[in-house]
Design a protein that fits this description.
single chain; alpha/beta; FAD/NAD(P)-binding domain; 4 domains; seven-stranded mixed beta sheet; 18 helices; 22% helix
């Protein structure tokens, strides 16, 4: 079984198991988990074979946005990442699809379609949706929130790392999984907020109504205002082998690992150096998964440098100006071939390298999920948008975006509320890209022998280190939380700043008389399950992962740490309510030569040998063979040929090649086909995009008729 049974941050509770059958074989599953997670837990990554060409199929998004994971469950086609497993369920691949079961239609019973009304309907129970619902409800609006997952929080439920931002305003220093619970609890406390989970919004209609599937029961909601806070979907990337099982998005990886506690990989390689890719790599190492490497096509990583530095310090090499050439394997990924690129993105001859791995994680950006907002505006519905559905940014920015939207909508409804200017300013600050300063960490000039050393190389909106310090020894000057923190002296050596830093970018230096002559003690934070003991020798590394020296472990401080006093000032009381600021981390005190102490930022965990490539020649792969439309198995060559024949309408492509005709509705292939048009020198202005489908997800026809039972309604597909 590929279950995560130990984790430095997540609890791993015992969950009752049930039995299901895959291709006739009995297998265990956990109650409540989806089919895809149950299959991965049993070591199965190839779910079936595509009916068109019998190519192996697995998962890609694990978020219901594509259809890569379609399987047959109890005789009916379902998305494995969205369908919960049930006792005795029989699952098989599409290639063996037996056809829909016969149903006696005379036995089908119908019921009326329920219609609900509210002042505000929020689509999406993530940080922006919940934030908006709370503010709108506090202003007096009746609010319904719908979300297709079984628990609120959106992508927060996948994030085990502490967040940046402001401690007071957006829970900086608290882990995403805990922020999700905080927001969900706040919404639940309000009588005028109804949160409907496992409820998918599927369409917006000209009458001003929104169709939803509430636990597979079709309902209509007529709101006075609509807020779409549905988040984002992951972008795909086209290259030979991109459709192999084992190639999937970072969100899918985090869903399996952090939500469902399934170990989805043994050796991982990452494509994309933004925050999504670097954070996913960090999550992998926390679960004991080897991260072979990370590549980024740009000359530098696009996300926060501190996230990349955390990976480098743990032993993950990061290669910039490097692109993926192909994924290699027959039934699933066995290795990946990469190459360096020049400023025009051309592959440099002689730079090909191949890395053995079983999983290739694609983290090359996000696309807003805003189809329902576009439809609502077309029908004249009072529709608003917030969070990633409006603009891709960090979750802390999404929280503020939602809060601002909730108040603006309430004000539009005549409620006496204000939208604080500082809220809108904070939202913009939290969206801001970090400034790269790369100034070295320096010792204080007051002669201190014991002091925190801050390795923050960029301006990030973040203040936990200054907020947690009881002595005010760390200050942020100038432009507020966007500026770098500075140590100003007066440290009482409590080490709270070392523990509070979300980036693990603060160490503590002790060069006092207590240390042996010529030696210094350096205390570094870790969020890993490690078994270091006093007297062990470890490899101490610098900020960018460079080897500094071999260091002796002097002390390993436990994961539990004293909390601020309950009678502490307000800021410390807030931190006490967010205990992850100083919990679930360990501190390792190292003894090193005094002259290298200032350069030590962490401890290497991975052996360098496991990240080395194997020798490779030009792989001679044909880009035209890469699959663009996963649903219908349409290739780059198919699309190029049609474009060169003069086709400029993607709807004609749909007719000619069936691209965009699959269950995902063109959500995955649409942007990729647009990129092929651009590569062929066709202006986007000359291309007619896909026409949006009236429904954003597949809905069995029986649901619209109000069929009484789930099984009978499914038969009406």
């Amino acid at each position: 079984m590929r279950r995560v049974d130990k984790h430095p941050v997540l609890n791993t509770p015992d969950i009752d198991e049930i039995t299901f059958y895959f291709e006739g074989r009995a297998m265990p599953a956990r109650i409540g988990e989806v089919i895809s997670s149950a299959l991965f837990a049993n070591g199965i990554r190839t779910f079936g074979l595509h009916p068109r060409d019998e190519s192996p199929q697995g998962i890609f998004c694990a978020n219901g946005q594509c259809s890569q994971c379609l399987v047959i469950a109890d005789g009916l086609p379902v998305k494995a990442c969205m369908e919960q497993i049930t006792e005795g369920m029989h699952v098989q691949g599409l290639v063996n699809f037996p056809g829909l079961p016969d149903v006696n239609r005379e036995e089908i019973e119908l019921h009326d379609i329920d219609e609900l009304e509210c002042d505000l309907l929020v689509i999406g129970a993530g940080p922006s949706g919940l934030g908006a619902a709370i503010e709108a409800a506090d202003a007096g609006l009746s609010v319904i929130v719908v979300d297709d997952k079984d628990s609120p929080g959106g992508k927060l439920v996948l994030q085990t790392h502490p967040f940046f931002g402001s401690v007071e305003d957006c829970y900086a220093g608290t882990r995403g999984i805990d922020i999700a619970k905080i927001l969900a609890d706040e919404a639940a406390e309000r009588d005028n907020v109804s949160v409907m989970m496992s409820t998918m919004a599927v369409g917006v209609y000209v009458e001003g109504k929104v169709g939803v599937l509430d636990h597979k029961v079709y309902k209509l909601i007529k709101p006075k205002s609509l807020l779409v806070a549905a988040g984002a979907r992951e972008k795909a990337l086209v290259f030979p082998g991109c459709d192999l099982p084992g190639v999937y998005g970072a969100g899918a990886f985090q869903t399996l690992l952090n939500r469902d506690l399934v170990r989805p990989s043994e050796k991982l390689f990452i494509v994309g150096g933004g925050n999504v890719g670097t954070i996913a790599g960090y999550h992998a190492i926390q679960a004991g998964i080897t991260v072979v490497g990370l590549i980024e096509a740009m000359p530098e990583v696009g996300g926060y440098m501190v996230h990349a530095d955390k990976l480098r310090r743990l032993g993950v090499p990061i290669y910039t100006s490097t692109t993926v050439v192909c994924a290699n394997g027959k039934e699933s990924v066995e290795s990946v071939t990469v190459a360096e690129v020049d400023k025009e993105w051309n592959i440099l001859p002689g730079t090909y390298r191949t890395y053995p791995c079983d999983t290739l994680l694609i983290a090359v950006g996000l696309e807003p999920v805003n189809e329902l907002h576009r439809a609502a505006l077309k029908f004249g519905i009072d529709s608003h948008i917030a969070g990633d559905a409006e603009e891709i940014a960090e979750a802390s920015a999404a929280m503020f975006s939602g809060r601002v939207a909730g108040r603006k909508i309430a004000k539009q409804h005549g409620k006496k509320v204000t939208v604080p200017t500082e809220w809108e300013e904070m939202a913009e600050i939290l969206k801001a890209k970090p400034g790269r300063e790369n100034e070295p960490a320096v010792a204080p000039d007051d002669g201190s022998k014991k002091f925190p050393l801050i390795y923050c190389p960029e301006t990030i909106p973040c203040n936990p280190c200054s907020e947690v310090c009881p002595e005010g020894a760390i200050q942020i000057f100038g432009g507020g939380i966007i500026e770098r923190p500075e140590f100003v002296g007066g440290c009482d050596r409590c080490l709270k700043c070392v523990l509070a830093c979300p980036a693990l970018a603060i160490t503590f230096i002790d060069q006092s008389e207590k240390t042996p002559p010529g030696k210094a003690w350096v205390t570094v934070p870790l969020e890993l399950l490690v078994d270091f003991k006093k007297g062990d020798t470890v490899t101490a590394v610098g900020q960018k992962g460079e080897t500094i020296c071999e260091a002796k472990v002097i002390k390993v401080m436990p994961r539990k740490w004293p909390m601020p006093d309950k009678n502490a000032p307000p800021v410390e009381a807030r931190i006490a309510a967010s205990p992850d600021l100083i919990r679930k981390k360990i501190l390792v005190k190292l003894e090193v030569d005094e002259d290298v102490a200032m350069g030590i930022a962490g401890i290497r965990i991975q052996d360098e040998e496991i990240t080395r490539p194997i020798e490779t020649l030009d792989p001679s792969v044909a880009e035209d063979e890469a699959v663009v439309c996963r649903c219908q198995r349409v290739t780059v060559g198919d699309i190029r040929e049609a474009i060169r024949d003069g086709l400029r309408d993607m709807n004609q492509l749909k007719t000619a090649l069936a691209s965009g005709m699959g269950a995902c509705g063109g959500k995955t292939c649409g942007p990729l086909i647009g990129a092929i048009f651009r590569k062929e020198g066709i202006s986007q202005d000359d291309v007619t995009p896909y026409t949006d489908r009236p429904l954003v997800a597949e809905v069995p026809l029986g649901y619209f008729a109000g069929t009484e039972s789930e099984k009978e309604s499914d038969s009406e597909k």
